[in-house]
Amino acid sequence: METTGETANIGVGKEEAVLFLSQVETHANIRAFFPPGSLSPMHASGIGKALLAYMDPERLDKLLSKGQMTRFTAHTIIDPTALRQNLEAIRESGFSVDNEERNEGMRCIAAPVFDMNGEAVAGISISGPTSRVGASEVEELSRPVIKAAHQLSFAIGGSVTRPQP
User: Fold this and answer.
1) What is the rounded CA–CA span in Å between residue 90 and residue 6?
2) Which helix (H) or strand (E) holds 121?
3) By the 8 A CB rule, do 7 and 128 touch?
4) Domain contains 143
5) 132 within some domain
6) Sign for the pseudo-dihedral over CA of 32, 17, 55, 11
7) Is residue 160 part of a domain?
8) Could you tell me if 6 and 128 are in contact, meaning their C-beta atoms sit under 8 angstroms apart?
9) Which domain holds residue 131?
């Protein structure tokens, strides 16, 4: 939060959702708010998509075959093929973007945290209004998010060498 000026979050996967564990809010008047214990569907969450991108392929197939994904906004990716393409781009870049997929006017940038087995066990993100987290700022803002995720991975004995599912 101090580096980007935006609300920072940490979350883990819980079944088909992201469970938000903690948040450090921005000092700006307009901000994202995910109180600890909040759940958000993985397909419409920056942290969720960061976790999905590195999920075991069989588990991902099961998750995507369970049924229709909820559309929250016109930007929500609900087509499994399109989501898989987005997950491939996440693996290539090392970060995910919730581009107004859960809430209009809000953007989230997230990166996975890896444990000692190379599994994505958590995610770190920043969230803010699109007026401050514009499309042109995503690449620059992703750097401190990725750095924080790498630091946490190292702190828990993990590796940042991203395995391919």
Assistant:
1) 21
2) strand 120-129
3) yes
4) yes
5) yes
6) positive
7) no
8) yes
9) 7-155
Cβ 106 vs Cβ 126: under 8 Å: no
Assign residue 22 the CATH number of its domain. 3.30.450.40
Rounded distance between C-alpha atoms, residue 6 and residue 125, angstroms? 9
Q: What is the pLDDT along the chain (165 residues), one digit of tens a residue?
A: 888 878 899 999 998 899 999 988 877 777 777 789 999 999 999 999 999 999 999 999 998 888 789 999 999 999 999 999 999 999 999 999 999 999 999 999 999 999 999 999 999 999 999 999 999 999 999 999 999 999 999 999 998 765 554
- The three-class DSSP label of residue 102 is coil
The single-letter code of the amino acid at 70 is T
Phi-psi region of 103 (alpha: psi -120 to 50; beta: other; left: phi over 0): beta
* Length of the chain in terms of residues written: 165
Number of domains comprising the chain: 1
**Within-domain flag for 17:** yes
